[in-house]
Amino acid sequence: MSEQNFFRINGMKCGGCVAAIEKAIKELDGVEAVEVDLETSMASVTGNVSGDAVVAAVDAAGFNATLVAD
What we know:
Layout: E1 3-10, H1 15-26, E2 31-37, E3 42-47, H2 51-60, E4 64-68
Antiparallel strand pairs: 1-3, 1-4, 2-3
C-alpha cells in the first residue's frame, strides 16, 4: 500500500533546484509521485519508499531534507 510523506527541503533557490530534487527522488525504487514546491520548501512523495531513502537522495543531490512528522 502506498503512503504519502512530506519533507522540508532546505537550499532550494530556483526551478533548477526543484528539477534536481524531483529527479533524485524519482530514481528511488517504489516512488510513484513526487511534487516539490519552491515557495513552501516542501516535497510530497507518494509510494512505497522509506523516509530515510528520500532524505539520503536529496542530501546526495546537494540539498537538505527533513521528514515532517504527521
